Amino acid sequence: MKAPHLIAVAAALSVISSSAPAQFVKGNEAVKVMPDGRKSVETPPQPAFTLAAPCPAARDGCAGGGWNMVETEAGLQECTELYARPGTCRTSTYGSEKRSRLWVVKKQGQWMQCQYPDLASKCVSTKALPLSAVQ
């Protein structure tokens, strides 16, 4: 028979793991786990033309059209743009705050924006108009 405190811990872990939201997109080709266990992350390349000055993630109103959820070397980040330039990202609030979000992923060698953290959801090219959802 298991000790009562072990049963309580196991039950709590079961609830946490079953209700915890995805903090990554399964199948995102931009994220690779190396043989030594390190994670290698690719972010979308910046266009050849000059971009406007970045709107910092810390400034109110910079993510007016919704947050771009981008996997970076620092983990999942909320970014004001899909390129994840320095200063445009902050730690993810996914699972704790409801916001309009797009998931930036690499699928079949192409950069895509997905409506949900699932490659089977509505995904369009980063060059197309995205379909964000509050989540």
Mean pLDDT: 83
What is the oligomeric state here?
A: single chain
List segments where confidence is low: pLDDT < 50 over at least 5 consecutive residues.
Answer: 1-20
Count of structural domains = 1
First-residue to last-residue Cα separation: 41 Å
Class from secondary-structure proportions: alpha+beta
Strand count, sense and barrel status of the largest sheet are: 7 strands, mixed
* Run of helices and strands: HEEEEEEEEE
- Give the count of helical stretches: 1
Number of strands: 9
Shape: globular
Query: What is the radius of gyration?
Result: 17 Å
Describe the protein in words:
The protein is an alpha+beta fold. It has one domain. 12% of the residues lie in helices and 28% in strands. Strands 3, 4, 5, 6, 7, 8 and 9 form a seven-stranded mixed sheet that branches. It has a two-stranded antiparallel ribbon with strand order 1-2. β7 and β8 form a beta hairpin. The protein is globular and about 40 Å long. The model is unreliable at 1-20 (pLDDT under 50).
